[in-house]
Amino acid sequence: MPIPPLLTYALRRLVQAVPVIVLIMVGTFLLLKLAPGDTVDALVGDMGGADAQFIERLRIEYGLDQPVWVQLWRYMSKLATFDFGWSFVYEQPVATVLMDRLGTTLLLMATSLSIAFTVGVALGAIAARRAYSLTDNVISTLGLVFYATPSFFLSLMMMLLFSVKLGWLPVGGIKTIAGFYTGWDHVWDVALHLIMPTAALSLIYLSFYLRLMRSSVLQVADLDFVRTARAKGAGETRLMFHHIMRNALLPVVTLFGLQFSTVLGGSVVVETIFTLPGLGQLAYQSVIQRDMNTLMGIIFLCSIIVVVVNFLTDLLYARLDSRIELS
Amino acid sequence: MSQDRQDTAPILEIRDLKIALPEGSDRPFALDGLSLRVNPGEIVCMVGESGSGKSLSAGAVMRLLPEPHVYVADGSIHFEGDDLLAKSEAEMRGIRGNRISMIFQEPMTALNPQKTVGWQIDEVLKLHMPAKRAERRKHALDMLARVQIPDPESAYNAYPHQISGGQRQRVMIAMALALSPRLMIADEPTTALDVTTQLQILKLIRELQREDGAGILFITHDFGVVAEIADHVVVLRHGEVVEQGPAAQVLNDPRHPYTQALIASVPDLAPPAPKPLSDSPVVLKGTGLKKTFAARGGLLTGKRKAVTAVKDLSFALRRGETLGVVGESGSGKTTVSRLVTRLLEADSGAVELDGADLLACTPAQMRAMRKNIQMVFQDPMASLNPRKRVVDLIAQGPIVHGANPAEARENARELLELVELSPAAANRFPHEFSGGQRQRIGIARALALEPKVIVADEPVSALDVSVQAQVLKLLADLRDRMNLSLLFVTHDLRVAAQLCDSVIVMQKGEIVESGTAAEVFTNPQHPYTQTLMSSIPGRDWTPPVRNTDAA
Amino acid sequence: QDVKTGGTAIVHMISEQRTLNPALRASTGVYNISGKIVEPLIDKSYDGYEPVLATEWSSSEDGLAITVKLREGVRWHDGEDFTCDDVSFTAMEMWKPLLNYSSALQANLESVDCPDPHTAVFNYSKPMPIDLFVAAMPDLGHPMPKHLYEGTDILKSEYNTAPVGTGPFKFVEYERGQYVMAVKNEDYWREGYPYLDRIVWRFIKDKSAAAAALEAGEVHESGFIGVSMADVERLSNDDRFDVGTTGYENNVAHSTVEFNHRNPIMADLKVRQAMYHGLDIDYAIDTIMRGFAKPGRGPVPSAGGENYTDDVKTYDYDPELAKSMLDEAGYPVKDDGFRFKLRHRPAPWGEYTQLWAEYFAQAMKEIDIDVEILTNDAPGFLNGVYRDHDFDTANGWHQFRSDPAVSTMVWLRSGQPNGTPWTNQFGWKSEEMDQMIDDAASELDPETRAEMYHQIQRKAMEELPVIFAIEHPFISVTSKKLMNHHNTPRWNSSSWYDLWLDQ
Amino acid sequence: MSIIDDTRLRPAEPSRAVVFWNRYRRNRAALLGLVLFAVVVLMALTAGLVDPGDPLRRAGAPLTAPFVDMATPLGTDQLGRDILSGLFYGARISLLVGVVATLVAIAIGVVIGALAGYFGGWVDDVLMRITEAFQTIPNFVLLLTLVAILGSKIEWITLAIGIVSWTAPARMVRAEFMSLRNREFVDAARNLGVSNTSLIFREILPNALPPIIVYASVIMALSILLESALAFLGLGDPNYASWGNMIGQGRAVLRTAWYCAAIPGIAIVLTVLSFSLLGEGLNDALNPRQKQ
Ligand SMILES: Nc1ncnc2c1ncn2[C@@H]1O[C@H](COP(=O)(O)OP(=O)(O)OP(=O)(O)O)[C@@H](O)[C@H]1O
Ligand SMILES: Nc1ncnc2c1ncn2[C@@H]1O[C@H](COP(=O)(O)OP(=O)(O)OP(=O)(O)O)[C@@H](O)[C@H]1O
Ligand SMILES: [Mg+2]
Ligand SMILES: [Mg+2]
């Protein structure tokens, strides 16, 4: 039976991703080993101190007394069987720790990126359509201001206004604790909690899409085939939707794929402020705690997500760009 | 005849049209006082060098000028008696594509890459024809058949990148003619095409127009094309009409000195008498050259098909000889020129320069050898580093090869004079020159190393005819004066005929015919060569005796 | 006012507690949660030590055996009886080998005998002062159920994050990064208690967010200075909240300045004294601690009870004096405007520690000492100071754990191995001091013991191995809806059986 | 002289700088960006001249509001440090971080991108895998890790920001090189016998610079934002008054003394804005594509 081209393509992408992921994992491992101190230091710091034998015993327990390359080899050979190891900080298997957080992060990233993408693209198209007009200036300036505002600043201001002053939105967390909502109430509850973090994240990324889309539309609008369509008697709206948009979206889609991992990094601060139990915050904590296995797990997961997202954006790209055929 | 023209009601009448350019442009008006008329069933050719305002006049008729920077300052445009300039944008939309249609130069970019051919033809129908989908589809398929596209059904569903350049231009024409417009404007519709395709398209336009009786405003800069197709000719220069009249008269008996000069620049097809070269030594010899572009595909495209650009090619170039390499697009001409200079590594074969095999040299040896074999490139803008001053561009070669920089620069100034440029040019940047001047700089750069062989890849095809003639003349002069050998790659048979001693004709990477220019041009043997020769536009027209000094 | 029962109390926690087993991890963060679920043998009240799972305790004459009577009729949350086996198991398998701090305390513990199910006898190889034993029990004396741990890998037991205890509340769930929840234990041994239905601990890392949550009514209590000092001060003027330090008498900390005595400049007592004179402690208390603190008087804080004395040498703020002392010590101002340069490592915990470091740098500049602050995260800091000794000065806060023997003395006693955090890694060694500390630790008579600690305190203030600059209890912001709050000296760690919600 | 003569030179054009400036100033927003940028530079240069010296010194009573005490016109922070002075010195740090981190990022990016784009083949493969690896790790997490390793000295922070920012310029340079290496002028130079190194750095690089310069403004803006985010998490260098540090500490008193965080916050917004506007202006001036 012939393998469908999409599958072969997916397989090829997977094979290509393997060396990159190995590179990332080894690199991160060694990098983190360069950092002063280890998990035990962090744990002891957290406990408020411990005596020397205790510390010694923990190190042996965690295998931290071994040479670095032994530790690396142990880790990598476990990883090859998709065993992420044990988090000494959370006293749980890393896989459990990660799965607990993955949902929140994916939800946050997916909603904020899709909002950023759609709104950014729409505003960018409008701004380009009325290039150099008042509308354009207002949209572009707002975009730049949001872009220039540090995310924590924006988050704090929002929290101050909407939670404390107006009391409309919950301060943080992912759901009302001890609310015990189920069904749609639960969905609504989570949605309420996600409004501000999503807004904070998406406003920043929105401006990227906005600016790119604007210049992309301006660029495409100058192309010959748009002139052809005009010469056919097509009106501006038709030009925009049938001729310009789809071509102008191409670079924006590429950015979408590239930006995914940045958003995860960007969510560190937002998750911290809004107390969202997500991977961004977990990553930050893991660095500080030298929680090697957890951090490595996050990075691994993140690489997989990025590979998948890039694969999907490539598919989307191919869908949008008829010149590309997957084979 | 001129009496007849005035009597019929014109489809298009332009009077005293003035188009203003934005401040800071090289002239205030792109068009200054253009008047012309297009009658039904008539092809009016607008000729003129680059920048003379041809495209903008077409834009003005379509009301598609890039306003507000460029706008109609004065004059009138009447289409079938209606004042187009007074129409609203909505009214204009009703006219565009319906009663006036347009074909553009680049079939590559003029079609939306993301929509199927069928969709794009359908769009024009949808906009102007109140008809059901199936009906429109049928009409579109009819149109595709009319423009002689082999398999209209599959072309209908194809994306532009899936059909050839010639077919794309046919699609454009089908689109333009779909609603039987009264006026069709064609802005250099064949310039980007191969000679053979060009001729087919020209014929097609002509036939279709005969059937429909539309008027055509045909823009071109090629007098060959004019001779092929025009009923009436308008010659533009710097936005002013210098001469207009019936085709026969303008072509064969130009009145204005400018027109005369232009026509005189058109190379005629009679090759020069063969030079006695058989006893000069062979300076450059290629044997069994082969190049396959094995396809390392992109991530998304996967592996591409391997393309054999050149297979088993051999030639010999003697001292003082000019060897022309001709053939249509994609036949491997450029590949040959790059193999010979080792800008591309050949898969197999040898290139001997004065007996030494270039392809066997180490990189260091090769760098030293390059002194002897220099190139002149096609695009005079792209081949000069825009960030370098002319003097540095010319002196670069000698300096790399160990010359004293100060002396090399001094030499460079002298070379500028040799290529007939003022030494004042030395300190300027490439963008401050016209195309022809840049090509002169390119020639000076090649000469600076005092090479034995110069390889020129389409050195004049990016230039206007008038300038083309001058650059060719310069090249010929220098060749004769310095006893250079020239490997001259071109797709323009007229140019080849004028300059080359011998010619090799390539098709799909292979030599199909070779011999002296005189033999090949007067008595082509291979069927492919014969088709090529018969496709030269205006081949039956011999430019009138040169009565002006073009240089 | 009538007690109302029911309701959910929501408590703010700054950082997540990954393990909730107080017999494996001694830290206030753990007790803050586990204290309601797992009970210690003895707790501390304002009236002294209070029996919880232990009912009485006594020591043999020689101090080698301590007998503890256990409460009868107490059941673990899973229904099993609480007996001496549990105490013995926990003491030998957890307190002695696994529990930080306790390992040193119980180093001489030989065995725990169970003559009957409700009597435990702790056998020591060297005398153990009963006072010390009792003082340690509230923190280091939590029995865990033997039947759930025995025969398993204790460190990886699932019950470490889902504790089973005897306390007034039963563990329900732990959502990582979000909250821990516990519900009323209907089978609690104190009849009629607890009042609350449920307690939820919410993790909010960001202090501003925590303050916002308090104000929005989403959280009822935030302890251990869980909001910024500015917000503490602001909320203290808000009549919806009680703000104060009550309930932390057992959890007092010092903001310190530590010296690396390996550096000859720091080894010079005159320099250290001069630096102390250069610090405007009152200003720092006002600006950084917003007045919720007092000047430090050596290793024992005023909360140290009879072991504390204020009859010690003090160092007033006097920059001019400081400068002249430095001149005398042979460190005049050089061409670059400074006497010498110090590399200072601040501990990365908390806002006021950071500010204290910056104030320290600022103040030192006033007496022409250049201070470069080296910021690191916790492991980096601990390594830099306690293992690599790569610093000239450092600062942080250190908590006092009710008895000097189990807490502050380690900062003065020499001889701990490299890399042990919060020990004397400062290169300061005094045979005399070491002796005094050892003597005090095994002294059985309370009065003599107190006097010995006064001596130590005086000596520490004279020789300044470490500057115990500011003594500050922790601060809680508590919603006035909570009743009976902060009614014991280690309230945040206690069981809250009598806490109720007025709503 | 005949009618068609292509040997006569056009009158000399104004110099590049003039052309550049003429194009640049057409964009009014870009001019605003330039003015803002100039203000920031001026602040950085005059820090210490205009204003009371050390921004870390106690200058007045803690938490003095702006415009209350003329000795500290913009007020003081928790430790009584002068906010105005911090603003001026902070400009210095922000610019320093922005410029140096950008230089680092661009330098790495140019080398990697140039080699990958110029040589193609396996060199490209290897370098691009490395680039992908760097791109896959969330850059802020990598930054945190680097800072954890190196410590929070301003030099290290700057270096770390540079290290996490190089991938985008590398990709961009690579793309530029891939298109430029096939341009005829490169062939022309190669045909003159120019070596690979000269081809890369003398022939191609100068032509690849305009988009890189434009992108530099983006990195500069991002660097400043990254530095402030680090400071917000308490990982800034406390030995210098930086805007990020000021916000990081100011937010503790956000509710009572908003100005401590708001003033440096606005400074960051305006500075980043100025870089963005500057970038757009440069883009219009260096890569004129569409005519306005
Ligand atoms: N949008 C525009 N803005 C400013 N100047 C323009 C614009 N379009 C064209 N021009 C100028 O107007 C003049 C005429 O341009 P036009 O495109 O009509 O020339 P053309 O005869 O079609 O030349 P070519 O043969 O190269 O196509 C040129 O000098 C050109 O620089
Ligand atoms: N770098 C390349 N990679 C893959 N295929 C190539 C490459 N360069 C040229 N080809 C293919 O080799 C064939 C010959 O190309 P070449 O450029 O030599 O033709 P040409 O005769 O110069 O055409 P033109 O007249 O259009 O310049 C074409 O089919 C082309 O697609
Ligand atoms: Mg044109
Ligand atoms: Mg070619």
UniProtKB/TrEMBL annotation, chain A:
It is a multi-pass membrane protein. The keyword Protein transport does not apply. It comes from the Bacteria. Residues 102-317 form the ABC transmembrane type-1 domain. CDD domains: TM_PBP2 (cd06261). PROSITE patterns: ABC_TM1. The keyword Transmembrane applies. Its main location: membrane. Keywords: Cell membrane, Membrane, Transmembrane, Transmembrane helix, Transport. The chain crosses the membrane at residues 14-32, 106-126, 138-162, 190-210, 248-274, 294-317. It is found in: Cell membrane. Belongs to the binding-protein-dependent transport system permease family. This is ABC transporter permease. It comes from Arenibacterium halophilum.
UniProtKB/TrEMBL annotation, chain B:
Residues 532-551 are annotated as: Disordered. GO terms for molecular function: ATP binding. InterPro entries: AAA+_ATPase, ABC_Ni/Peptide_Import, ABC_transporter-like_ATP-bd, ABC_transporter-like_CS, Oligopep_ABC_C, P-loop_NTPase. Residues 12-263, 284-533 form the ABC transporter domain. It is found in: Cell inner membrane. Keywords: ATP-binding, Cell membrane, Membrane, Nucleotide-binding, Transport. Its main location: membrane. It is a peripheral membrane protein. It comes from the Bacteria. PROSITE patterns: ABC_TRANSPORTER_1, ABC_TRANSPORTER_2. Belongs to the ABC transporter superfamily. This is ABC transporter ATP-binding protein. It comes from Arenibacterium halophilum. The lineage of its organism: Bacteria, Pseudomonadati, Pseudomonadota, Alphaproteobacteria, Rhodobacterales.
Automatic annotation (TrEMBL), chain D:
InterPro entries: BP-dependent_transpt_permease, MetI-like, MetI-like_sf, OppC_N. It is a multi-pass membrane protein. The keyword Protein transport applies. This is ABC transporter permease. Signal peptide: none annotated. The keyword Transmembrane applies. Keywords: Cell membrane, Membrane, Peptide transport, Protein transport, Transmembrane, Transmembrane helix, Transport. The chain crosses the membrane at residues 29-50, 93-119, 140-168, 212-235, 256-278. It comes from the Bacteria. PANTHER family: D,D-DIPEPTIDE TRANSPORT SYSTEM PERMEASE PROTEIN DDPC-RELATED, OLIGOPEPTIDE TRANSPORT SYSTEM PERMEASE PROTEIN APPC. Pfam families: BPD_transp_1, OppC_N. It comes from Arenibacterium halophilum. Coiled coil: none annotated. Belongs to the binding-protein-dependent transport system permease family. Residues 91-279 form the ABC transmembrane type-1 domain. It is found in: Cell membrane.
